[in-house]
Amino acid sequence: MTENVELMNKYGEPLRYDRNFQGPRQRDRGCTDVPCLIIFLLFLGGWAFIAQYALRNGNLNTLMIPTDMFNQKCGKDSSVLKKNYLFFFNLDQCIDPLVPITGCNTPQVCVEKCPSETFVWDSMKNTKTFEDLKQRLICKTDADKAAIYSKTDIQRAIDDNRCARYYIKSEPFLNRCMFEFSDQLCELLPSVLFRNRRDLSLLLPGNANQSQELEMQAMALTLQSDVQALVAPQTNPRQVPVDEQVGQCRRQRLNGAVIREKMMQTDTRLAKMVGNLVAHFDTGAHDAQRLGEEIVEDLVNSATIVLTTLVLTMIASLIFISLMRWLAAPILWFSIFGVLIGLLAGIYYSIKKYTFWKNTPTVPHHALNLHSQIQNLLQNANNWLYLSIFLCVCFVIILLLVIVLRKRIRIAIALTKEGSKAVSTVISTVFFPIFSWALYIVAIAFAIGVGLYLGSIGDLSFRMVRRIGENGEVTKEQCVCNGPAINYTVGAACNPETFQQYCYINQRLESCIETTCSFNEISNPPKVLWSMAYNIFGFLWLSFFISGFSDMVLAATFARWYWTFKKRDVPYFTLTHAFCQTAIYHLGTLAFGSLILAICRAIRIILEYIDQKIKKYDNAVTRAILCCMRCFFWLLENFLRFLNRNAYIMCAIHGKNFCSSAKDAFNLLMRNFLRVVALDKVTDFLFFLSKVLLTGGAGVATYYFLDNNPSVIQLNYNAVPTTVVVIGAFLITSVFFGVYSMAVDTLFLCFLEDCERNDGTPEKPYFMSKQLMKILGKKNKLPQRQRRSK
Q: Record's superkingdom (predicted)?
């Protein structure tokens, strides 16, 4: 190997052409930013100590204490000290995705224990005694139950929704009473699984009026669907005999919470959830419920087509990236002109619709439902005019950018082709983000778990409050306290046990009802508050560290590919080598860069918190100052993210520490500022157009197939599966092109480094492809036998 002369440049790297040379500083690497790594490890150790402290001293049950309809904490507030469990009059009403926001629209009361047996008033009122029925009743308040003296009173209380009409044997789950299906319920199946109104009349008393009959029918049908879904969750259209359903119920009943069984009712329950979700944004409740059912029906019926289309989109993305290795220019120009033609088609269609609705007088739909509002939007000529103007502006801007940057686009296409070669050669890089996602999920779960346990540490604080009535009025009950509670006043701190013992209504000496000692908050000690801040900052630091680790591994992989003379000599385990190289040598650099971003993000969070706190003062000066600071730190964070990304690439290439890599990257980019703006952003623009093309193609193909093949599948709205496909396709293409973007960014910096480091002489040959050298007017002056094969 006499060809490999030991001449070194200013970087301490060989100058002569060397077949074994694999890029700057690939061999003699050392650990970078070790002090930062030590600090990061110590920080993680402190985070682990906080986690074990939270697990030892926290109790999630404190955060999960149920609250009844009167805003009383079961088992904690003075009026419900011995009632630890929450009972729902109708648990079906709680199956709503917005329950955490809007609450469960059914009476909820605290009880001493969950029902140990099933109760159905309409089937038991003629077979049970009054005393037995009253004992089984669960009412909103003890006063409601105490005011019942006959079966007529029971009927009236149930009709007024002051007592539950029915309930099923339950077991506590997070202190909530959840259904438990037993043999007793199975025995009741014949009385609730009736098919029509004639069967219903057999269960109704002779003097039942029409409204009671209809109400009973609705309740029975609900019970029927619930029990049928629970005992026969399989989607079998045939009618199962009652005796067989009873047998299935006995065989399939569980001793745990019913929530597991409820999850089997996918179709009906999901339809109810979507319907309730639509109802929150639409005043037509009946139409919203029907729309929700139709949407879920379309999703279920088109699940196979949606999954198939998404798989085909993933395959198309892989093929798209692979084809760019040979057809980068035609494909990217096709993407550009495809988007332009699509915009022209949109402009034509919008103008056509504008002309039509402008010359067609119509009366707007006055119905208050979602479908009518959409029709009004589509029949408004001005909306089509605004859309056509917007599309024209987009078309002109994209066309001008293409004309002005056409020469830079050629170089961008060459870089894109190089990126396609790199990704196709090391195809495992496409699936590497799955590893990052797994780490993200672990970090998120850990941070949330530690935060919840920390939030549960502290003393429960209570204060004396008056209950607010259903109409929003504050009660005027005269509650007087004496003895140890003599200083208790409304709004002041109190103790529930002491309040219950020493506070009473002045005139009757009875326990206070409308005034209670209620739970206020968990008073976290100062060290717990600081631990919460530590936990938040730890999550920020760790999340940026994971993101940086993924970027550096990919950068090292693609840099090694670029700096290999013969690309077919790239090692098979290049990604594994890059992973190990990053994990062994450069974790300190990642810790340094992620720390800077974490500090900047923490400052932004603090500014947002301050902004929320001072909003009530409505001071224009402070708002202006905070707005400027928030804008500044937002720009700073984006700049730091850009700088970190390129610093990680330079570190992967040269193996230097973070500060040196950031300085080298910044100087290199500033020396080639026009190329950075023209090339780097052009490639991002091209990738965006490619994602739009693949996503739009998947959506159009799905809609066309559904619209032209009604015999294969019949749907209520073809737009439902099409929308799901568009969202899923965009996410899939974003993942693939995210890796592709990292490849192009890495190769771009290598390209700039190559242009500055080498001049094409035998001592310093170019590493770039022949196509790039041809575009730039460069070439390697090497003997024919030493030319690199492409």
A: Eukaryota
Higher pLDDT residue, 613 or 268? Answer: 613
Q: Are 458 and 59 in contact (CB under 8 A)?
A: no
Query: Shortest CA distance to 314 belongs to which of 733, 678, 746?
Result: 733
In DSSP terms, 176 is beta-bridged to: 86, 173
Distance (Å, rounded) from C-alpha 511 to C-alpha 430?
A: 69
C-alpha distances in Å from residue 284, one per residue of 3, 103, 149, 720? 83, 20, 41, 20
How crowded is the C-beta side of 680, counted as CA atoms within 13 Å? 18
Q: pLDDT by residue (tens digit) across 345-389?
A: 889 988 888 888 888 766 565 555 555 666 767 777 888 888 889
Residues near 742 by beta carbon (within 8 Å), at least 6 away in sequence:
551, 554, 555, 558
Nearest of 255, 287, 261 to residue 274 by alpha carbon:
287
Rounded Cα–Cα distance for residues 703 and 698 (Å): 9
- Coil, strand or helix: which one is 421? helix
The answer to whether 557 and 413 have CB atoms below 8 angstroms apart is no
pLDDT in tens, 715-757: 777 778 888 888 888 888 888 888 888 888 888 888 888 887 7
Q: What angle do CA 674, 678, 679 make, to 5 degrees?
A: 110
Q: Determine phi and psi for 655, rounding to 5 degrees.
A: 75, 25
Task: Give the integer Cα–Cα distance in Å for 758 and 204.
Answer: 95
Dihedral angle computed from the Cα positions of residues 287, 292, 294 and 296, in that order, rounded to the nearest 10 degrees: 180
Q: What are the φ/ψ torsions at residue 235 (nearest 5 degrees)?
A: -85, 80
| Nearest to 309, CA basis, from 721, 789, 736 | 721
Digit-coded pLDDT (tens) for 269-286: 455 555 555 554 444 444
Instruction: Quote the distance between the C-alpha of residue 677 and its chain's center.
Output: 33
Q: pTM for this one?
A: 0.71
What's the rounded Cα separation, in Å, for the pair 749 and 644?
13
Count of CB atoms situated within 10 Å of the CB of 286: 10
Q: Mention every residue, 6+ apart, whose C-beta is less than 8 A from residue 658.
A: 32, 33, 36, 588, 589, 592, 593, 647, 651
Cβ neighbours for 790, distance < 8 A, ≥ 6 positions apart: 567, 769, 770
SS3 463: strand
Amino acid at 351: I
User: How is 176-209 classified by DSSP, letter by letter?
Assistant: EEEE---HHHHHTHHHH---SHHHHHHHS-TT--
Distance CA 14, CA 369 (A): 73
Structure tokens at 21: 């040379």
**Polymer length in residues for the chain:** 790
What distance in Å separates the CA atoms of residue 370 and residue 367, rounded to the nearest whole number? 9
Cα–Cα nearest to 643, from 625, 631, 661: 661
Q: How far apart are CA 132 and CA 122, in angstroms?
A: 14
